[in-house]
Design brief:
Helix 7 crosses helix 8. By secondary structure, this protein is an alpha+beta fold. The mean pLDDT is about 95. It has a five-stranded antiparallel beta sheet. The two termini are about 15 Å apart. A hairpin with a 3-residue loop joins strand 7 and strand 8. About 55% of the residues are buried. It folds into two domains: about 160 residues, Beta-lactamase (3-Layer(aba) Sandwich), CATH 3.40.710.10; about 130 residues, 3-Layer(aba) Sandwich (Beta-lactamase). It is globular and about 55 Å long. The structure holds glutamine (GLN). Glutamine binds next to loops. Its EC number is 3.5.1.2.
């Protein structure tokens, strides 16, 4: 069955959107990871992949960047898939925290981090993956990335080393959580797995394919491989919707209405379930740590294609 055209002039719309935002260099590149401060602020890419694998792109879609926090939905999905939802929920909650991604505020009473999209929650997910797979945990993540992108995975060792040498806050979070028995693996090994997943490299084209796999309920749009169970995808998208954009998740949900995840390198992915995956890369960030142009571009795409989950219409609905 052929897929309906998302919008006859979608390619022209993306070209125009890219051109309109090309000169907008508002925001700042991440400085707390020194290597990310060297990112080219001009690089700008938009990529959309439909659930059937049709791709619409504009700009520097083949320039690699590190996943950073955009890796979190995928490591969470892997944990749900390999360990099971009930078990994972006992260790990481699914409640929006209203705090920035790197918040060190922990609810000592409940002894679980608020959600897996903030650093504390993602570190506990790393510890769960370590507990399950031991020294093979990173390999599991690499295999997953390979299935999602169709390419051998790459890690940016400069970014890894750079973040490792300045990861004082993440180190503090993981050691504090270990002290509170919120994780049971070695804190340093847990941190290393987390930093490794953050340093994995993708292109904007790859990221839209990864988002499209989530949009299609876990089946890869090109290979047809079932990568995640539908229940895992539903869980991941729910958490991305309520927590993926941290302390601007409410505003994002109101305006854009799509599950999304951003990373401090400037990657942003949004998922229109049953329709398409959207990815944007632009290194300059807003005050919440989201790609400035990524937020703008995604807002405009969602508006133009009627993608807000609570609107009655949508181009592919
Ligand atoms: N928001 C992000 O992308 C944060 C990821 C980064 N590696 C950190 O832990 O600080």
């Amino acid at each position: 069955m052929t897929e309906p055209d998302p919008l006859p002039e979608l390619q022209a719309f993306l070209d125009e959107l890219h051109q309109t935002l090309a000169s907008d260099l508002t925001g700042d590149v991440a400085h707390y990871i020194p290597e990310l401060a060297t990112s080219d602020p001009h690089t700008f890419a938009i990529s959309i992949t439909t659930k059937n694998g049709r791709t619409f792109q504009a700009g520097d879609v083949d320039v690699p960047f590190t996943l950073q926090s955009v890796s979190k939905p995928f490591s969470y999905a892997l944990a749900l898939q390999d360990i099971g939802c009930a078990e994972v929920l006992q260790h990481v909650n699914v409640e929006p925290s209203g705090n920035p991604f790197n918040s060190i505020r922990l609810d000592e009473g409940r002894s679980v981090p608020d959600n897996p999209m903030i650093n504390a929650g993602a570190l506990v997910v790393s510890s769960l993956l370590l507990g399950k797979h031991q020294e093979k945990a990173f390999e599991r993540l690499l295999d997953l990335l390979q299935d999602l992108t169709g390419k051998p995975p790459r890690i940016n060792l400069n970014v890894l080393q750079s973040e490792n040498s300045t990861a004082h806050r993440n180190r503090a979070i993981v050691y504090l959580m270990r002290n509170l028995n919120m994780l049971d693996q070695d804190p340093e090994k847990t941190l290393q797995l987390y930093l490794q997943q953050c340093a994995l490299e993708v292109t904007c084209a790859d990221l839209s394919m990864m988002a499209a796999t989530l949009a299609s309920g876990g089946v890869h749009p090109l290979s047809g491989q079932r990568i995640f169970d539908p229940a895992v995808v539903r869980a991941v998208l729910s958490v991305m919707y309520s927590c993926g954009m941290y302390n601007s998740a409410g505003d994002w949900g109101f305006r854009v209405g799509l599950p999304a995840k951003s990373g401090v390198s400037g990657g942003l992915m949004a998922v229109a379930p049953g329709q398409m995956g959207i990815a944007i890369y632009s290194a300059k960030l807003d005050a919440h740590g989201h790609s400035h142009r990524g937020v703008l571009a995604c807002q405009r795409i969602a508006e133009r294609l009627g993608l807000h989950l609570f609107s009655a219409s949508g181009v592919l609905r």
